[in-house]
Every structure is written in structure tokens, then in C-alpha cells.
Design goal:
Largest sheet of chain B: none
Number of domains of chain A: 1
Number of domains of chain B: 1
Radius of gyration of chain A: 20 Å
Oligomer: heterodimer
Helix content of chain A: over 70%
CATH class of chain A: Mainly Alpha
Structural class of chain B: mainly alpha
CATH architecture of chain A: Up-down Bundle
Helix content of chain B: 55-70%
Largest sheet of chain A: none
Number of helices of chain B: 4
């Protein structure tokens, strides 16, 4: 990993740990999860270690891919890989920055420095914003990569299955978001509202951007698969396979996670506990995806180094 | 009617290498020629093919995990040499 990238991440980790453990936990959260402060800190500590490991994996993955893309930047495929690396960088940096800001906002609310609606509006938009930017950049890169091939057709079966799946989760998400009674104001038993915005703002600034992000994710998934299927070179494909696997894991699980956290929690509050555990597992697998990206990028870089 | 443009030795070598290195083929050949033949890759002639074969074979052996890939590559490149020089 690049030294500057490593120092930047370590700084974020220190800040994250400081914000999490140097201040007492948010009483609203303790009430919601029915825990005392000690139990909550213990739970946070057990969650923090794998999360931090995933951040390092993410930074390692995107910095390796960026290094590879930079080494071939003059070539047509170099441009595609560079945009994908930018997208992964936004996703990778977004993970700790988003967590850090969300935690800081929550602390600011419990300290009386910020109101809950302001905190919620900032954190929900930050979350959708970085994920949308990331998937848009990855899709752009995947499209540029695909354009380097003389002829490459999207597999029709995957297109149909993907479109149906995308339409289903989008409809489910819209229904879930607008059936959530606590979307604008907190309705008991909910302690806080999910968005603190009216329906028009929820639709235009949260729901639509998420759906667009999933469309970009789906497009990237198909484009990367198609590129892998049609590109030539036995040794190139062997190295590309790991990168491809990593990208497909990151894209598909990130889309699923966005959907799960955005849609399911807004309507099925009782699923929150199991969902937190499942989310941690998925985030961990996304970390493995980033490791695959790094290994694939290393293999591809080897093809560019040997003389 | 314009006659079809004949491929240069460089282009033909890239075609052979593409089956193994995909989009990295051209960049790989450029590095090999610049490092070992000390000339502009676009200026290679049929007389350079044997030497390029020697070096690229070694490089492919470093990248491939199995001997079969190396042998297949070598065979394809020798066929190119034969086409141009009548010998490997």
C-alpha cells in the first residue's frame, strides 16, 4: 500500500476510535438496543476490529488497482481500469469517512450541538452520495473497458434476470420507503424519524439516487463479466479472474447491503438486530472482495513488469 | 480497389502474443524489443523474430505456471518465424 494512503487511513482509524470510545455512548441508542454503557462499548469494540480490517483491505485493494491502472494509463484498457479504481477509491474511502461522520454526528446530537433532523439528513445524504458516486465511476470504467473490445455482446439471459431483479428490488424499496410511518416524523415506538424530509425530497434525493446507484452497479456487474468473457489472452485472463471475482463480490454485496439497510430497516424494525450482524458479515466479505482486487491487480501488474 | 494492407512483423507478433497476454501484448512486445534489441519496436524486421522469440519465451515461462502454455506459445511464435524466414 502507498505510504500516504496508509497514513491517511491510519489517521481516520485513530479519529474513529477516538470518537467512538472517548465519549459516552448515545443514550438514544442504549435505549433502542436495551443495553447498558459497558455492554454497548464491548459490542462496539468487537465490531470495530473487523471493520478496521475491512478498511485496510479496501485501501489495499483500490491502491493496488490504481497503481496498475497508472502503469498502463496510456493504453485504452488503462483508462477503464483507472475509472474503476477511482470508483473503488470512493467506496473504500467512503467506508471509514461515512462511519466517522455518522458517529461524530450522533455524538453532536447527544451533546446538544446538533438537532437529530440535521444529523439524520446529513448522514443519509452522505451515505447515498458516496455510494452513488462510487458506482457511477465503476460503471463508467466498466463501459470504457468494454469499449476496448471489437465486439462484445451483453449476455441476454443475464440482462433479463438482472433487469427483473433490479425492478423487483426497486419496487420493494419504493414501497418500503413510503410505507415507513416514521419517514418524516418519529412515530412511537421509533425514537427518531428515518429521513426527516417530505415525500418529494425523500423520493428525489434518497430513493432515486439509490435506484440509479443500483442500475450503475448492475451495469458494471454485467459489463465486467462480459469483458472477462470476451477479452483474449490465457495469462491475462488468469490474472484478471481474481480482479473480476473481487469486483463482482464488491459490486453485488454493496448493492445488496444498500438495499438491505435502506429498505428493510425502514419497515421491519424487528429485523434490525439480525440485520446488524448480517451487515457486518457482508462488509467482511466485501473486504475479501477488495483483497481479491489487490491480488488480481498484482497479477496484472506482473504482466506489465516482466522483461 | 485498394489492395489489403499487409501486416507488419510487429503487428503479426502482437497477434501471436495477444492469445497469451490479451491487451497487454503490445506493451509486452514493446518492452522486450526495447530492453533486449535496443530498437524501436515498430522497426523490427523478420530478422529479429528469432531473438524476440528467445526473450519472450523466457518471459512467458516466468509468467505461466505450466510448461504447456510455454510450449504452445513457443510453437506459435516459431510458426511466425518460419513464415518469415523459413526457419526458427
Amino acid at each position: 500500500m502507498n505510504r500516504k494512503v496508509f497514513i491517511f487511513l491510519t489517521l481516520l482509524v485513530v479519529l474513529y476510535l477516538a470518537v467512538n470510545f472517548a465519549t459516552p455512548p448515545n443514550p438514544t441508542i442504549l435505549l433502542r438496543y436495551k443495553m447498558d454503557a459497558g455492554q454497548y462499548q464491548l459490542m462496539r469494540a468487537s465490531l470495530a476490529v473487523p471493520i478496521i480490517l475491512v478498511w485496510y483491505a479496501a485501501f489495499y485493494g483500490f491502491s493496488k488497482l490504481m497503481g496498475y491502472a497508472r502503469s498502463i494509463k496510456q493504453s485504452p484498457d488503462g483508462e477503464g481500469f483507472m475509472w474503476i479504481a477511482y470508483g473503488l477509491a470512493v467506496l473504500g474511502i467512503g467506508l471509514p469517512v461515512n462511519s466517522l461522520i455518522a458517529t461524530a454526528l450522533s455524538r453532536a446530537v447527544s451533546g446538544g450541538m446538533l438537532t437529530q433532523p440535521v444529523s439524520t439528513i446529513i448522514s443519509t445524504h452522505l451515505s447515498v452520495g458516496y455510494q452513488l458516486a462510487s458506482f457511477f465511476l465503476i460503471a463508467l470504467g466498466a463501459w470504457k473497458l468494454l469499449k476496448t473490445l471489437k465486439k462484445a455482446e451483453f449476455p441476454k439471459q443475464s440482462l433479463v434476470i438482472g433487469s427483473v431483479l433490479l425492478a423487483t428490488i426497486s419496487v420493494f424499496y419504493i414501497v418500503a420507503a413510503f410505507n415507513n410511518p416514521s419517514r418524516e416524523v418519529a412515530v412511537p415506538p421509533a425514537q427518531t424519524a428515518t429521513y426527516y424530509m417530505n415525500d418529494i425530497l425523500i423520493f428525489s434525493t434518497i430513493v432515486l439516487p439509490y435506484i440509479f446507484a443500483w442500475v450503475c452497479g448492475f451495469f458494471s456487474f454485467i459489463a465486467i463479466k462480459t469483458y472477462y468473457r470476451h477479452v483474449g489472452g490465457v495469462l491475462y485472463k488468469k490474472a484478471l479472474k481474481k480482479l473480476n471475482t473481487g469486483l463482482l463480490i464488491i459490486i453485488s454485496l454493496s448493492v445488496f447491503l444498500q438495499f438491505a439497510t435502506a429498505a428493510i430497516t425502514s419497515i421491519y424494525a424487528w429485523l434490525l438486530g439480525p440485520l446488524v450482524i448480517a451487515t457486518q458479515l457482508f462488509v467482511f466479505v466485501i473486504g475479501i472482495g477488495f483483497i481479491y482486487v489487490a491480488l488480481g491487480a498484482k497479477g496484472l501488474a506482473k504482466l506489465e513488469e516482466v522483461k | 480497389m485498394t489492395p489489403l494492407k499487409q501486416k507488419t512483423v510487429y503487428e503479426e507478433a502482437v497477434v501471436v502474443l495477444y492469445d497469451y497476454l490479451g491487451p497487454a501484448a503490445g506493451r509486452f512486445l514493446d518492452r522486450e524489443v526495447e530492453a533486449h534489441l535496443d530498437k524501436d519496436p515498430r522497426d523490427i524486421t523478420s530478422g529479429d523474430i528469432s531473438k524476440i522469440h528467445e526473450w519472450t519465451r523466457l518471459a512467458i515461462a516466468l509468467l505461466a505456471e505450466d510448461q504447456k502454455t510455454v510450449d504452445d506459445f513457443s510453437e506459435s511464435f516459431l510458426a511466425l518465424a518460419k513464415k518469415h524466414n523459413g526457419a526458427g
